[in-house]
Amino acid sequence: MTTQDFTTVSAATTVSNASAASAVTTASAVTTVPAYAAPAAHAPLERTTVPRRPVGDHDVLIEIVYAGICHSDIHQVRDGWDEGIYPMVPGHEIAGVVAATGGAVTRFAVGDRVGVGCLVDSCRTCDDCRAGREQYCTASVPTYNGRDKEGEPTYGGYSTHVVVDESFTVRIPDGLALDAAAPLLCAGVTLYSPLVHWKAGPGKRVAIVGLGGLGHMGVKIAHALGAEVTVLSQSLRKQEDGLRMGADHYYATADEKTFEELAGSFDLIVSTVSAPLPMGRYLGLLATDGVMVNVGAPEEPVGLNLFDLLAGRRTLAGSMIGGIAETQEMLDFCARHGIVAEVEVIRAEQINEAYERVLAGDVRFRFVIDAATI
Fold first, then answer.
1. Given CB 3.0 to 4.6 Å as the disulfide criterion, which of 37, 197, 309, 332 pairs with 89?
2. Under a CB-based contact definition with an 8 Å cutoff, are residues 37 and 19 in contact?
3. Alpha-carbon distance 190 to 327, whole Å?
4. Looking at residues 68-80, what average pLDDT do you find?
5. Cβ proximity of 273 and 209 under 8 Å
6. Beta strand 228-233 with 249-252: parallel, antiparallel or unpaired?
């Protein structure tokens, strides 16, 4: 793609809704866009170009403004889950502006503030899809590191533009800044979905394990839902942050007394950590009929003694992101309650450094890439 073509597409974001048809014509010529990709497993990300399909009838062309860095990006770039497709352009926390629309698009217009999360398609006909649970569709198409229905690899948000079906695009409310809203597209809905499903609210005692990119969203959302919120973190290093975000209590799990003092205390525990936990100890913190939900995905297996579930009729569960309607519901909820992610905006050339900082726990609380630097 020439510099002239790229400039023309970028300018499409400023055209009026009445000019959408001409913008589509321009956008349909786009075949490649700048991006940052990992050329192979464990390789550093580097600047490159990747193809984007022409804007179809039901598609929107999005000029990406910000893209969040999720810990799962690191897992996949480094092939931690043994499912890598390379070159890989990560990024499923995408916030941007509609630059062009297909002729049959009804939900969005040029200039709208929009987001894209972890999915860009699904079968749309199975029970899960019909129920708004596209994330559990066995034919769902991830935003990156997947293949679309034509068998072509999908490339994510570490790029300047993306073409997405309007049905998998969500509207970002005006009250949410785009940089702080980007992580809501994964981290936000990943915590919102289990908290709502297991009815966190007034009278419920909820513990969030870990206060990172996911955990800090869990604290804010659980607090806004009206639950009594406790943070369980390795140390008290982030205690002031946790209490500021809405936690009622904060405990260090490195302290042996924590598990004795809090035994049987919680109705719901949501674990956000991506390392194996001693499950028996955490299950012991549940009250009778309590539920422990895992949203973090360790690369290694975890051990489980079933007696830890039998005692107290406890439940061990998992939850994965959220459906498209639920993601929109979450964004609207966050706008009403003034909830955003706490972010550090970086330039694209800092991505590899940011990955190392995430692994070292040196981020408060989410890195977001300024796509203008790509």
1. 37
2. no
3. 9
4. 93
5. yes
6. parallel
pLDDT at 29: 56
User: 283 is written with which tokens?
Assistant: 């299950």
Two tokens, residue 279 = 């499950």
Helix (H) or strand (E) segment spanning residue 201: none
Could you tell me which of 124, 125, 126, 115 has the C-alpha nearest to residue 164? 115
Q: Is 229 within 8 Å of 208 (Cβ atoms)?
A: yes
Task: Write out the E strands in the chain.
Answer: 32-37, 46-51, 59-68, 94-101, 113-116, 119-121, 141-142, 161-165, 170-171, 205-209, 228-233, 249-252, 266-271, 286-294, 315-318, 343-346, 366-370
Rounded CA gap, 136 and 302, in Å? 22
63 Rama class: left (phi>0) / alpha (psi -120 to 50) / beta: beta
| Selection from 90, 47, 93 nearest residue 365 by Cα | 93
**pLDDT above 50 for 13:** no
Average pLDDT, the chain: 92
Q: Is 292 left (phi over 0), alpha (psi -120 to 50) or beta?
A: beta
DSSP bridge pairs for 256:
none
Q: Domain boundaries in the chain? A: 3-186+322-373, 188-318
Q: How far apart are CA 241 and CA 111, in angstroms?
A: 35
DSSP string, 209-228: E--STTHHHHHHHHHHHT-E
Superfamily the domain 3-186+322-373 falls into: Medium-chain alcohol dehydrogenases, catalytic domain (3.90.180.10)
Strands of 155-201, DSSP E: 161-165, 170-171
Q: For 12-32, give the DSSP string.
A: GGGS-GGGHHHHHHHHTT--E
In sequence order, what are the residues at sequence separation of 6 or more whose Cβ sits closer than 8 angstroms to the Cβ of residue 49? 1, 32, 33, 34, 35
**For tokens 């048809």, what's the residue?**
21
Lowest mean pLDDT of 72-86, 141-155, 159-173, 281-295, name the range: 72-86
Both tokens of 135, joined, read: 């994330």
Counting every residue, how long is the chain?
Answer: 374
pLDDT at 352 over 90: yes
Residue with tokens 């749309």, as numbered in its chain: 124
CATH superfamily of 188-318: NAD(P)-binding Rossmann-like Domain (3.40.50.720)
